[in-house]
Amino acid sequence: DTGSAAAVPIDDVDIAYVTPVTIGTPPQTLQLDFDTGSSDLWVFSSHTPASQVRGQEIYSPNKSSTAKLLEGHTWSITYGDGSASRGNVYVDNFTVGGLSVAQQAVQTAQQVSSSFTSETNIDGLLGLGFSTLNTVSPKSQLTFFDNAKASLDSPVFTVDLKAQAAGTYDFGFIDKAKYTGEITYVPVNTNPGYWTFTSSGYAVGSGSFSSQSITGIADTGTSLVYLPTAIVTAYYRQVSGATNSRNYGGYVFPCSSALPTFTFGVGDARFTIPSSYISYSPIAPGSSTCFGGLQSSSGLGINIWGDVALKAAFVVFNGANPPTIGWAKK
Length: 330
Ligand SMILES: O=C(NC1CCCCC1)N[C@H]1[C@H](O)[C@@H](N2CCCCC2)[C@@H]2OC[C@H]1O2
Known about the structure:
Blueprint: E1 3-9, E2 17-23, E3 28-35, E4 41-43, E5 68-78, E6 84-96, E7 99-112, H1 114-118, E8 124-127, H2 144-148, E9 156-162, E10 165-171, E11 180-187, E12 196-204, E13 210-218, E14 225-227, H3 229-236, E15 243-245, E16 250-254, E17 262-266, E18 269-273, H4 275-278, E19 279-282, E20 289-292, E21 294-296, E22 303-305, H5 307-310, E23 314-318, E24 324-329
Parallel strand pairs: 3-8, 4-7, 13-22, 14-21
Antiparallel strand pairs: 1-2, 1-10, 2-3, 2-6, 4-8, 5-6, 6-7, 9-10, 9-23, 11-24, 12-13, 12-17, 14-22, 15-16, 16-20, 17-18, 19-20, 23-24
């Protein structure tokens, strides 16, 4: 089996991407944020209080003839940005881009935090991290990828995110038309459950490449890139008027400032993030102060290669044993 579905930016700065999925019988279509940084599949649902729903599509298990309540199971998750949700669990038929899983655990939200309520284009999340991170209790559940893996032609999924355009999530195959040159594969550390790999270094603009190990996670559910402070300060030293603003919670700069590119290494390969991806967004609509797409990871305890980096590559998440991650130009 294979599957292929679109990854569509939800706004004009690519804060997140959503992918259509169908749940139940007859099929109910929701737009989910595919998140390699977590492993819960949760949806806005008929169990979500109306006061917390602002236009999102909902999943109603009682309208699905194939839905079954997973008795006595609950879930609760808090993400790195402080957003959170919790609820109960059903199993039902679940399809992504033509790829179906019969008994997928679908976590129905009984409570979502305000940032989810206000993100009206996201109807829930589909975790693509390792199932060890799943929060369902008393028995943790498998991700869609783990459930589908055995029936896939190849135990992989690929991520092709684009700036202000629809990209794709492919399952079970590697589409040669989506990348150029070779794919560079590096090992993945599955502890505690992220797609953790080690980059081989970085360069700012046309500067020299600094070879150093940068261990971090490939996270489609995070908008920006978060790296060690030394690297980030080296970058913004090249940006006139840049400052690390406590007020705005990170590096900001005059939108008119020239930005260098940022290059990161994977093995011997080099990937360059265009300046336009790092001039992430005005701090408020129409403002001449812009927020950077590259920020410090010092408060996080983990480095994160989010969408700003993933957009610059074609990435293979190889779920074989042992798992690896592959990066290619496109
Ligand atoms: O919390 C993180 N990442 C952290 C960011 C700060 C530094 C540590 C990692 N990712 C979340 C993301 O922000 C959420 N958000 C919802 C609203 C639209 C934008 C996406 C979405 O829900 C869970 C996941 O995806």
